[in-house]
Write a structure and sequence with these properties.
Layout: H1 6-33, E1 35-38, E2 43-48, E3 51-56, E4 59-62, E5 69-74, E6 80-84, H2 101-105, E7 106-108, E8 114-125, H3 128-133, H4 138-155, H5 159-165, H6 167-185, E9 189-200, H7 206-275, H8 277-292, H9 317-323
Antiparallel strand pairs: 1-4, 2-3, 2-5, 6-8, 7-8, 8-9
Length: about 325
């Protein structure tokens, strides 16, 4: 009886086709799982059988395929943020918003007053290896640390400082304390900024607090106006006083110089008088008359014994009065 080999040949052909197909799938799987790309603002953390191997920079990279190497991409240059007491829609950071925002923002100040504090922290991933493997949930851990730090800083100040003049100091101190704790817990993060947003008293006392703030602002306004008037009047009065003082000093110097000149001139005349008294008297008389007579106007001098002078002169009324 003849043996039919055709079914066996068909089986061999199908098996050969299946082997080639499996080999092709394996090659595709090896190639596809051995290549990966790290984006420009990220770094890749390579794990081999779950153990850290290296950190790679952006670009096209290769690794052992088929799950031998695994890569975690971490955005190290992107600035992330977390919001406390409120939430912005469309957040991409999973830990940016908390479901307990009302509890986060309710705080007690150092003078035992209640305050509603909303704030933001901005941070970057500085060490991806620590961020991924040192703490189980670094994002929520950071939220807990930030809330603890803010409650500590707010609890050291009065409600007036928290709501008005102490905001910048609170931000600076909270940033320092938060970065210190982040370094202590080795989260691998760098805190860029802590920013206070809305800081208000509780809703029940907000109207009264607003009235107090308004009164304080009015007081500051009046103080500023008074200081402006003071700065305008006082310098002008000081200038006028200085001007009068300088004028008085100039007049005093002038009078002293004139007196000294008169003394010098008198001493000079006295010296000449002592040398020749009669001559000096005559000279002084003549000089004095030379100064006085021109100031008297037109005068006619006659002998006191003369008579019948009027018919000889055509005198004007002024001259007549002067002659008389």
């Amino acid at each position: 009886m003849a043996f039919d080999t055709e079914p066996w040949q068909n089986y061999e052909i199908r098996r050969s086709h299946l082997m080639w197909i499996a080999l092709g799938i394996l090659v595709v799987a090896v190639v596809s799982t051995s290549m990966y790309t790290v984006q420009a603002e990220s770094q890749g953390i390579v794990l081999r059988f779950g153990k850290y191997v290296k950190t790679v920079d952006p670009g096209l990279r290769f690794k052992f395929p088929l799950g031998i190497d695994q890569v975690s991409i971490v955005q190290v240059k992107r600035q992330l943020k977390q919001e406390f007491g409120f939430g912005t829609s469309g957040a991409t950071n999973p830990t940016q918003i908390s479901t307990e925002s009302k509890e986060e923002r309710s705080m007690v100040t150092g003078d035992l007053n209640a305050a509603t504090v909303e704030w933001i922290i901005q941070y970057r991933i500085r060490e991806p290896q620590l961020f991924l493997f040192n703490v189980r949930d670094p994002g929520n851990t950071l939220r807990d640390i930030s809330e603890s730090v803010m409650r500590t800083v707010v609890g050291d100040r009065t409600v007036d400082e928290v709501i008005t003049v102490g905001r910048q100091e609170i931000e600076s101190e909270a940033l320092i304390q938060l970065q210190t704790l982040v370094n202590k817990y080795e989260l691998g993060l760098s805190i860029d900024q802590v920013q206070l947003k809305n800081v208000n008293p509780p809703l029940k006392v907000q109207p009264s607090f607003n009235e107090v703030n308004q009164a304080q602002q009015e007081r500051e306004k009046l103080i500023n106006i008074a200081n402006g008037e003071y700065n305008k009047v006082i310098p002008r009065a000081s200038g006028e006083a200085e001007q009068k003082i300088q004028a008085a000093e100039g007049y005093a110097l002038k009078r002293v110089n004139e007196a000294q000149g008169d003394v010098s001139r008198f001493n000079a005349v006295l010296a000449e008088y002592l040398k020749a008294p009669e001559v000096t008297k005559q000279r002084i008389y003549v000089e004095t008359m030379r100064e006085i007579i021109p100031k008297l106007g037109k005068k006619i001098i006659i002998d006191e014994n003369a008579s019948q002078v009027l018919p000889l002169l055509q005198l004007t009324p002024d001259v007549q009065r002067n002659s008389q």
